[in-house]
Design goal:
Elements: E1 30-34, E2 39-46, E3 48-52, E4 55-62, E5 66-68, E6 73-85, E7 88-90, E8 93-101, E9 106-108, E10 111-113, E11 116-118, E12 123-125, E13 128-130, H1 132-136, E14 179-184, E15 187-192
Parallel strand pairs: 1-3, 2-4, 3-5, 4-6, 5-6, 6-7, 6-8, 7-9, 8-10, 8-11, 9-12, 10-13
Antiparallel strand pairs: 14-15
């Protein structure tokens, strides 16, 4: 009796997996970098770390750490874990772990931090609230309200112009036929009367001219009495 080997299903190689598939990739924090020529104005929320080398204005909140390079200029409210400032930062800062201001760094604004480290030669101006309670009481950056979508009313249909009214012509006036009763041989017989032609309009008399009296002088001498 012969035995055949049991066929085994081949194990898929890594090349057979779909591109970009990495089970552990979703658990790794992301990192965003703004270069020296980059400029961002608005609200920014990142699930991960942020490194700024250019210009940033608005509101910034990250779940990881924030690093501001020497040539960076940030004018925004900043919230993160460890916040390292080596450039210029203007605005309120919330550091859940630590705020580090380097020798070339400059911070202007109120800060709420768990710990604070300022290097020799750094510039700082603002109010400091330190401790875990200060960080927990820090207000979160305000989010802009979403615009309410109002449905546009459907345009009302334009009324169709009414057709012009038909002008009725007056009915012609027909005179009733006249009946003339004539007697012939003692019997009355009705005969239709003939239409009489219209009478001509007499001309208007000309206005009479007033009579003019003429005085005739008497001849001879008047008699003396």
């Amino acid at each position: 009796m012969s035995t055949r080997p049991v066929a085994r299903r081949p194990t898929p190689s890594p090349a057979d997996e779909p591109p970009g598939f990495s089970p552990a990739a979703s658990s790794q924090p992301s990192s965003v970098t703004l270069g020296p020529r980059d400029r961002l104005i608005g609200q920014l929320y990142i699930e991960g770390d942020l490194r700024v080398g250019g210009i940033l204005e608005g509101e910034v909140e990250v779940t990881g750490n924030i690093e501001i390079d020497d040539l960076a200029k940030v004018k925004a409210s900043v919230a993160g874990g460890d916040v390292s400032v080596n450039g210029h930062l203007t605005g309120p800062v919330v550091a859940r772990k630590r705020l580090i201001v380097g020798r070339s760094g400059s911070v202007i604004g109120d800060v709420r931090v768990a710990r604070l480290a300022i290097a020799d030669g750094a510039s700082f101006s603002g109010k400091v609230s330190m401790g875990t309670g200060a960080v927990e009481a820090a207000p979160r950056p305000m989010q802009a309200p979403e615009p309410e979508v109002v449905p546009m009313p459907a345009p009302a249909p334009e009324p169709e112009p009414a057709p012009p009214a038909a002008i009725e012509k007056p009915a012609p006036i027909v005179a009733p036929p006249a009946v003339v009763v004539a007697q012939t041989d003692g019997k009355a017989k009705a005969m239709p009367a003939k239409a009489m032609p219209p009478k001509p309009t007499p001309p208007k008399p000309a206005p009479a001219k007033p009579a003019q009296s003429k005085v005739v002088p008497q001849k001879g001498k008047p008699k003396r009495r």
